[in-house]
Amino acid sequence: MSAPATGSAPPPVNPRSRVLVASLMGTTIEFYDFYIYATAAVLVFPQLFFPSSDPTTALLSSFAVFGAAMVARPIGAVVFGHLGDRLGRKRTLVVSLLTMGIATFLIGVLPTYAQAGWVATALLVLMRLAQGFALGGEWSGAALVATENAPSGKRALYGTFPQLGAPLGFIIGNGLFLVIGALLPSAAGADPSQPSDAFVSWGWRIPFLFSAVMVAIGLWVRSRLVESAVFARTRESGEVRRLPLVTVVRSHGKQLVLGTFIMLATYVLFYLMTTFSLSYGRAAKNAAVPGLGYDYTTFVLMMIFGVLFFAAFTLISGPLADRYGRRATLIWITAAIIVFGLVWVPLIDLGTLGVVLWLVLGFTLMGMTFGPMGALLPELFPTSVRYTGSGISYNVSSILGAAVAPFIAVALWEAGDGSPWLVGVYLSAMAVLTLIALLLGKETKHVSLDDREAASADDATHAPAASPTS
């Protein structure tokens, strides 16, 4: 008779390639869905769902629905955070991605205001709220998949892969809009800055319907994941919290507040460089609120060029944050964002070359500030409440920085008589708040994501010295 085994088999481990693809795929879909809605909110939604005699009012109404999703995101962060901290990261990520995919697909088949009146607008709001709810649980789960499975000394690098989904989603979403626009050109004599009749009629629906293909691929990738060893040990040791939200608010309130404001400048810069810049770039120079006067295709191509720097510097920021620390890296980048907001208008006034430089610098700073967040926010919280804590910080910041940013930017744009100098000041002011939060916070580079290892290290630090022996 063979002897019984003396030890259990080691738990299965996610291959590194699967970890990176799974974290990247979900956030790529997340930001793809964001960009196609943001683009449609500028191009067609004002006339299809928010008819008004005043184009600015229609645009602001469209942006208001855009911002409504940000309000739903903290609710999603609480719900999906609860599930992620109790049931596991894998199953929660599958549910959040499926919810997002269904909501995005349904936007593509909605009736317009001309067909169903305010019922159409209400349905768009409902689907947008569902998107925001799903997004509330998406990012933090993807970041945890990357960081909790990262090798030693490379946590910030691995944390940049879910962040890389932002520029990739932009390129895929806007690239698809460009292809559709090229295949559905405007009639002869039509205003080239406006989408064609065919695009307004049905072409805009294609990117929303195409999201179903991306979601299917993402679900397949995520279904092959296993839980991280860090979470598995927490569950086996009985340290899973019954109410993660209560625990994180009671015991980690300071981290919640700091994390929210650390993310603030990133969100403001992100939405100004994408949603606002598209509106400002396309607005005619002789409009009531004048803009740069570029046609849609030209300006989006300029933006895509800038987004290439966004992608490159997102990856570059990871090794820098691993070497010099998250806090130190972000302090310098946030200071650069403050300066960028103050030189915003002088850059734009240089002409097309200046506009391209404005986009390149803005997106470069975006990559540098966004990349380290994939590691920093999860590092603020222990495993038992990490999904909830990082998700709440990330998504509450979306209200303060993203939900209101396009609305405030348009109002400041109007107040500046067509010059966006006040918008730049607004960005700098929000970056000052982020800088203060970083200065009040601590470096998290050497924080252990394993609660037991962290507790052991703490016990060792506070253990009494051994008695001297003769």
TrEMBL record:
<dbReference type="InterPro" id="IPR011701">
    <property type="entry name" value="MFS"/>
</dbReference>
<feature type="transmembrane region" description="Helical">
    <location>
        <begin position="392"/>
        <end position="413"/>
    </location>
</feature>
<dbReference type="InterPro" id="IPR036259">
    <property type="entry name" value="MFS_trans_sf"/>
</dbReference>
<feature type="transmembrane region" description="Helical">
    <location>
        <begin position="296"/>
        <end position="316"/>
    </location>
</feature>
<protein>
    <submittedName>
        <fullName>MHS family MFS transporter</fullName>
    </submittedName>
</protein>
<feature type="transmembrane region" description="Helical">
    <location>
        <begin position="328"/>
        <end position="347"/>
    </location>
</feature>
<keyword id="KW-0472">Membrane</keyword>
<feature type="transmembrane region" description="Helical">
    <location>
        <begin position="116"/>
        <end position="135"/>
    </location>
</feature>
<dbReference type="InterPro" id="IPR020846">
    <property type="entry name" value="MFS_dom"/>
</dbReference>
<feature type="transmembrane region" description="Helical">
    <location>
        <begin position="256"/>
        <end position="276"/>
    </location>
</feature>
<keyword id="KW-0813">Transport</keyword>
<feature type="transmembrane region" description="Helical">
    <location>
        <begin position="58"/>
        <end position="80"/>
    </location>
</feature>
<feature type="transmembrane region" description="Helical">
    <location>
        <begin position="164"/>
        <end position="184"/>
    </location>
</feature>
<dbReference type="Pfam" id="PF07690">
    <property type="entry name" value="MFS_1"/>
</dbReference>
<keyword id="KW-1133">Transmembrane helix</keyword>
<keyword id="KW-0812">Transmembrane</keyword>
<feature type="transmembrane region" description="Helical">
    <location>
        <begin position="353"/>
        <end position="371"/>
    </location>
</feature>
<feature type="transmembrane region" description="Helical">
    <location>
        <begin position="419"/>
        <end position="440"/>
    </location>
</feature>
<feature type="domain" description="Major facilitator superfamily (MFS) profile">
    <location>
        <begin position="19"/>
        <end position="445"/>
    </location>
</feature>
<feature type="region of interest" description="Disordered">
    <location>
        <begin position="451"/>
        <end position="470"/>
    </location>
</feature>
<dbReference type="InterPro" id="IPR005829">
    <property type="entry name" value="Sugar_transporter_CS"/>
</dbReference>
<feature type="transmembrane region" description="Helical">
    <location>
        <begin position="92"/>
        <end position="110"/>
    </location>
</feature>
<keyword id="KW-1003">Cell membrane</keyword>
<feature type="compositionally biased region" description="Basic and acidic residues">
    <location>
        <begin position="451"/>
        <end position="461"/>
    </location>
</feature>
<feature type="transmembrane region" description="Helical">
    <location>
        <begin position="204"/>
        <end position="221"/>
    </location>
</feature>
